[in-house]
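ok so i was messing around last nite and threw this chain in just to see what happens. nothing serious, just curious
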Amino acid sequence: MDCYHVSAKHYDAAYAAKSDLVDIPFYLDLARRSLGPILEIGCGTGRVLLPIAREGLEIHGLDASSPMLRILKQRLAAEPASVRRRVHLHTADMRRFRLKKKFPLVIMPFRPLQHMHTVPDQLAALRTAAHHLQKNGRFAFDVFYPDYEKIFSAIGQEIAEFEWPSPGAPGKTVRRFFRKESVDKINQRIEFTFLYRTFDGSHLLHEESERFSLSYFTYPHLRALFLLAGLEPVAEYGSCAKTPLDNSSPEMIFLLRKFPSKR
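result:
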């Protein structure tokens, strides 16, 4: 689980260049309504965590990736003391993490659950979220809605995704490429590689790569996991704009609570 050794240093710039990543307002609204404190599972470099802390809300961030948390700590050091005091970081595995604290809101933004590759691991991660909910607390997370035409196509092909100026290197550009290596239909898992190439104009200066595995979920699969974890949906959305979850949805977003008997 201690991954993102290459991708951590590129993460913030890469996803700042991803124009369709618009989840921060959705999670920020939930955070404001909860009044805090908040637990974020899979907080990474603080892309969602820091905007919440800047709103004046206490937030605990959990991640298993030391490189990602290292970047977050660097970003946090540049924040005012009032923001730093609101943030509490934990390096741990989401399957086994336990705090002696309950929260009105637990969030898992931008698909950390898809790093769980077996039903026991997926269930353990959901039970971690459920364990940390206060009575009447809410748990929010998102995963992508599987587009099977895309999932099973273009295996082995490199696809250019986005680019950004190389930090501290005027005139240089970093471009991220995606290469799907294989698809495991039985276990619903995609193996892929991110390639980071630094260019001076059209001249390639440097290349780095990192391989990942990502699970994908069907709706009934998730509903079964919720039952096993003692969770039930309060709301379901097909996007961060809260559009209905239907066959045209690019995402599956859930707002959950514990079963009444489990509170």
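not much to say yet. Residues 148-215 form one domain.
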